[in-house]
Amino acid sequence: MSFLTYTQLTSLLALFANVATLVLVVIFGGARFEISSLVNARAWLRQALRDVGVWLAWTVATVSTAGSLLYSEHYNLIPCRYCWYQRIAMYPLVVILLIAAVKKVNSEARRYGLPLAVIGVIISGYHYLIQQFPDLESGACSLSVPCSAPYVWKYDFISIPYMALAGFLLIAALLLVTDRE
């Protein structure tokens, strides 16, 4: 697969993750709507996520991990410092969420996975902000692999940190709403 095709695919996956996160926020978010179709959708989705929510979060973590490895190992993109920090938050999620999904312990997935996902949201959000405003970079990254220079730039806003942010947000949302009473 060519680099351009692969970046197109990963960018579309990030957009899909954004839509899925938005749907979860609207359905399970703060205000309790009394629209019967939304109440029915909430009940149906809660039941569905009780069975597969952790598996979905694991799938997002696994695809994100594989994606970052393909970018670095196959396409030879050298990760910057913040990319490594994002990897440190994402890679363990694959193991943690797999064990929780196999054992069917959603509360344990939330207990151990959610802090990593939130840390990942903070790091990738900051990294994306640095790419948008390079003057914010404190010089912590090397000159050969600057944190402010995006390797990928699709649709004039999607970069690798944005993709990571989308993945972390979806994992956090799934863990928050899975088996939520």
CA-to-CA gap between the ends? 44 Å
Give the count of helical stretches.
5
Q: Please bin the fraction of helical residues.
A: over 70%
Strand content of the residues, in percent? under 5%
Mean pLDDT: 87
The total domain count is 1
Note the overall shape. globular
For the biggest sheet, the summary is: none
Describe, in short, the structure shown.
The protein has 5 helices and no strands.
Write the layout of secondary structure elements.
Blueprint: H1 3-28, H2 36-74, H3 81-103, H4 106-132, H5 160-177
Main features:
181 residues, mainly alpha, 5 helices, globular
Structure explained in plain terms:
The protein is an all-alpha fold and 181 residues long. It has one domain. The protein is 73% helix and 0% strand. It is built from five helices and no strands. Helix 3 (81-103) runs antiparallel to helix 4.
